[in-house]
Amino acid sequence: SQQGEEDPQALSIQEGENATMNCSYKTSINNLQWYRQNSGRGLVHLILIRSNEREKHSGRLRVTLDTSKKSSSLLITASRAADTASYFCATAWNRNTGKLIFGQGTTLQVKP
Amino acid sequence: EAGVAQSPRYKIIEKRQSVAFWCNPISGHATLYWYQQILGQGPKLLIQFQNNGVVDDSQLPKDRFSAERLKGVDSTLKIQPAKLEDSAVYLCASAILDSSEQYFGPGTRLTVT
């Protein structure tokens, strides 16, 4: 079964607005990652946050991690039409094996 | 740097036929993964290789799926015989040793009719 559960399943916003996606997981992790998937394409790595980190930024992306609640959130600020994609969280139990368990994903539509 | 290459991009077969997918990882990446992504879901790991050895194949339906990574570089994933529920996108990803950041190929979309 998949580790991560994402919320919401779908999100539609206007360009310029912020988009927030949430991910919950069930077991202890080494790190949590977010990936983007454009329609018909492979996944692209966005950001990795380790279990001992609480917040991380990369450009317009902000990721938080709350290990006590087993949850993470991805915030995309000042969204653009090009941000339209599916976003997946993925958890790694063990850094050395590299194995990832993916959530179901959030489909984001940014309207121009 | 060249990305992960996969072929074919699309494949349509009838049930009970066989099919094979090919993946060429990023040069120097020791770890290679095959995922199955059913429409509307996240990728599910089928098999993980480290060099030419299998690290994890616990979710590979071994009665019909097989995979190999000869010489620790390219990999092939085969389905024989295919079932309707095998319709999905098959993604290959690679990573450097001891890293969990993965680089994905464009995937092969399989339709079984």
**Helical content of chain B, roughly?**
under 10%
Q: Per DSSP, what share of the residues of chain B sits in E-state strands of 2 or more residues?
A: over 45%
Q: Can you tell me the overall shape of chain A?
A: globular
- Which fold name corresponds to the CATH topology of chain A? Immunoglobulin-like
Question: CATH homologous superfamily of chain B - what is it?
Answer: Immunoglobulins
**Number of DSSP strand runs of chain A:** 11
Largest sheet of chain A: 6 strands, mixed
Distance between the termini of chain B: 37 Å
Mean pLDDT of chain B: 94
**Radius of gyration over C-alpha positions of chain A, nearest whole angstrom:** 13 Å
Unreliable spans of chain A are none
What do these coordinates show?
The complex is a heterodimer of chains A (112) and B (113). Chain A has one domain (5-111): Sandwich (Immunoglobulin-like). Chain A is built from no helices and 11 strands. Chain A has strands at residues 5-7, 10-14, 19-24, 31-37, 43-50, 55-58, 61-66, 71-76, 85-92, 100-102, 106-111. In chain A, the strands form 2 sheets. In chain A, strands 2, 4, 5, 9, 10 and 11 form a 6-stranded mixed β-sheet that branches. The N and C termini of chain A lie far apart (36 Å). Chain B has 113 residues and is an all-beta fold. Chain B has one domain (5-95): Immunoglobulin-like (Sandwich), CATH 2.60.40.10. Helices cover 0% and strands 49% of the residues of chain B. Chain B has no helices and 11 strands. Chain B has strands at 5-7, 10-13, 19-24, 31-37, 44-50, 53-56, 65-68, 75-79, 88-95, 103-104, 108-112. In chain B, strands 2, 4, 5, 6, 9, 10 and 11 form a 7-stranded mixed β-sheet that branches. In chain B, strand 7 (65-68) and strand 8 (75-79) form a beta hairpin. Chain B is globular. The mean pLDDT of chain B is 94. Classes of the chains: A mainly beta (112), B mainly beta (113). Chain A binds chain B through residues 2, 4, 30-31, 33, 35, 40-45, 48, 88, 90, 92, 95-105, and chain B through 4, 31, 40-45, 48, 55-56, 91, 93, 95, 98-107, 109.
